[in-house]
């Protein structure tokens, strides 16, 4: 009898060990998901660092609570049966409800508030003696409009890419054009809702020049997942040069004085200008501004990489690449015209 008990014990021990190994492997695998250009655990600015600390504190605290509850639970199997009067039973029950059901959660929430409130405070756009750069970001189904109202010589407009100065605070003024979206650059800080008819503000800072991923963080329709934003922080002088090259005058000479692509430009004016802005040619705002399209990292808010021929691929297949997107299919335009349109748009790079 004892012999058999011992072998059962050994068997269970083996299984427990196997489970532990499987658990460790799985955890390791899951942790690989914590890296990458959209990871909150790889902060690249003060606001994001504060949030990461709050995250680790919450993880630690909830692990302790889970451990304690598990120990209590295991203890109930071990402890000897005791007989109590109904009065005693009631008193013990009340102690658990008051202690575990009221005091513990209230204390935990207060502790988290003490950690969390200063973190949120840092992202408020409070007045500074040296007013920060302002960048406006507008969420559309399913792309990003980015405006630089402070640019010398008139506002600069681009789309699906956000270039910002590194090493200084930047105020983002965000809103939505159609439904609620959410602006989120995980490595720089918290997310903020983009609500139609209302401007929300958040202050973020990138420590050093780098490229970050950003993503719409509020479900906004079928292509919500395909609403990526390329964010790049660059040195101050590089930022100013980038802006200067996108001044309307600079860009219009690029678009207008190009003799080689006259045919494409005419096709653009009759088929595309109502929705797309090309500085000097059109002001359409229903779709992304295309004035500097050639210098983008991707097309369709991250759907395909920008490379030679990518624009005409987009023009011919965009409804297959990003089903339901708000650009109508162009069956009425012959493929040769679409190709020349694509070739011309790719040259639009300051
Ligand atoms: C009814 C408005 C509308 C018309 C007309 C239109 N587009 Fe678009 N276009 C859009 C919208 C909206 C998007 C964004 C789609 C998305 O990513 O969800 C877009 C995206 C694009 C993109 C990708 C831009 C980027 O930043 O990734 C290109 C290039 C483009 N359109 C070119 C054209 C050309 C060329 C024409 C004319 C043949 C045209 N469009 C006609 C609305 C329009
Ligand atoms: Cu969304």
Automatic annotation (TrEMBL):
<dbReference type="Pfam" id="PF00034">
    <property type="entry name" value="Cytochrom_C"/>
</dbReference>
<keyword id="KW-1133">Transmembrane helix</keyword>
<dbReference type="InterPro" id="IPR034236">
    <property type="entry name" value="CuRO_CcO_Caa3_II"/>
</dbReference>
<feature type="domain" description="Cytochrome c">
    <location>
        <begin position="259"/>
        <end position="349"/>
    </location>
</feature>
<comment type="similarity">
    <text>Belongs to the cytochrome c oxidase subunit 2 family.</text>
</comment>
<protein>
    <recommendedName>
        <fullName>Cytochrome aa3 subunit 2</fullName>
    </recommendedName>
</protein>
<keyword id="KW-0408">Iron</keyword>
<keyword id="KW-0813">Transport</keyword>
<dbReference type="GO" id="GO:0042773">
    <property type="term" value="P:ATP synthesis coupled electron transport"/>
</dbReference>
<dbReference type="Pfam" id="PF00116">
    <property type="entry name" value="COX2"/>
</dbReference>
<keyword id="KW-0249">Electron transport</keyword>
<keyword id="KW-0812">Transmembrane</keyword>
<dbReference type="InterPro" id="IPR002429">
    <property type="entry name" value="CcO_II-like_C"/>
</dbReference>
<comment type="function">
    <text>Subunits I and II form the functional core of the enzyme complex. Electrons originating in cytochrome c are transferred via heme a and Cu(A) to the binuclear center formed by heme a3 and Cu(B).</text>
</comment>
<dbReference type="InterPro" id="IPR009056">
    <property type="entry name" value="Cyt_c-like_dom"/>
</dbReference>
<dbReference type="GO" id="GO:0016491">
    <property type="term" value="F:oxidoreductase activity"/>
</dbReference>
<keyword id="KW-0349">Heme</keyword>
<dbReference type="InterPro" id="IPR008972">
    <property type="entry name" value="Cupredoxin"/>
</dbReference>
<keyword id="KW-0186">Copper</keyword>
<dbReference type="InterPro" id="IPR036909">
    <property type="entry name" value="Cyt_c-like_dom_sf"/>
</dbReference>
<dbReference type="InterPro" id="IPR045187">
    <property type="entry name" value="CcO_II"/>
</dbReference>
<dbReference type="InterPro" id="IPR014222">
    <property type="entry name" value="Cyt_c_oxidase_su2"/>
</dbReference>
<keyword id="KW-0560">Oxidoreductase</keyword>
<keyword id="KW-0679">Respiratory chain</keyword>
<feature type="domain" description="Cytochrome oxidase subunit II copper A binding">
    <location>
        <begin position="130"/>
        <end position="245"/>
    </location>
</feature>
<keyword id="KW-0479">Metal-binding</keyword>
<dbReference type="InterPro" id="IPR001505">
    <property type="entry name" value="Copper_CuA"/>
</dbReference>
<dbReference type="GO" id="GO:0020037">
    <property type="term" value="F:heme binding"/>
</dbReference>
<feature type="transmembrane region" description="Helical">
    <location>
        <begin position="96"/>
        <end position="117"/>
    </location>
</feature>
<dbReference type="GO" id="GO:0005507">
    <property type="term" value="F:copper ion binding"/>
</dbReference>
<dbReference type="GO" id="GO:0004129">
    <property type="term" value="F:cytochrome-c oxidase activity"/>
</dbReference>
<keyword id="KW-0472">Membrane</keyword>
<dbReference type="GO" id="GO:0016020">
    <property type="term" value="C:membrane"/>
</dbReference>
<feature type="transmembrane region" description="Helical">
    <location>
        <begin position="52"/>
        <end position="75"/>
    </location>
</feature>
């Amino acid at each position: 009898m004892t012999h058999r008990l011992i072998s059962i014990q050994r068997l269970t021990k083996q299984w427990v060990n196997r489970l532990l190994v499987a658990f460790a492997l799985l955890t390791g695998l899951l942790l690989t998901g914590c890296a990458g250009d959209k990871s909150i655990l790889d902060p690249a600015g003060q606001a994001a660092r504060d949030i990461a600390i709050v995250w680790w504190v919450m993880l630690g605290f909830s692990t302790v609570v889970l451990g304690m509850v598990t120990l209590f639970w295991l203890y109930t199997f071990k402890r000897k049966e005791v007989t109590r009067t109904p009065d005693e039973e009631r008193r013990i029950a009340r102690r658990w409800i008051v202690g575990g059901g009221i005091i513990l959660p209230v204390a935990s929430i207060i502790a988290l508030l003490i950690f969390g409130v200063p973190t949120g405070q840092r992202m408020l756009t409070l007045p500074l003696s040296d007013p920060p750069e302002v960048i406006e970001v507008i969420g559309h189904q399913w792309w990003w409009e980015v405006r630089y109202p402070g640019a010398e010589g008139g506002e600069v407009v681009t789309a699906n890419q956000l270039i910002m100065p590194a090493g200084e605070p930047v105020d983002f003024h965000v809103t939505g054009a159609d439904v609620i979206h959410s602006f989120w650059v995980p490595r720089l800080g918290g997310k903020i809702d983009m609500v139609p008819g209302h401007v929300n503000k958040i202050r973020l800072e990138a420590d050093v020049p780098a490229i970050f991923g950003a993503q719409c963080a509020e479900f906004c329709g079928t292509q919500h997942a395909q609403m990526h934003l390329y964010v790049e922080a660059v040195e101050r002088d590089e930022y100013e040069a980038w802006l200067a090259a996108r001044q309307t005058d600079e860009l219009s000479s690029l678009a207008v004085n190009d003799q080689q692509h006259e045919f494409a430009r005419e096709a653009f004016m009759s088929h595309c200008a109502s929705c797309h802005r090309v500085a000097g040619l059109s002001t359409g705002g229903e779709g992304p501004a295309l004035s500097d399209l050639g210098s983008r990292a991707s097309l369709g808010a991250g759907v395909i990489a920008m490379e030679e021929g990518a624009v005409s691929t987009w023009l011919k297949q965009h409804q297959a690449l990003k089903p339901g997107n708000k650009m109508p299919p162009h069956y009425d335009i012959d493929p040769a015209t679409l190709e020349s349109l694509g070739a011309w748009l790719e040259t639009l790079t300051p």
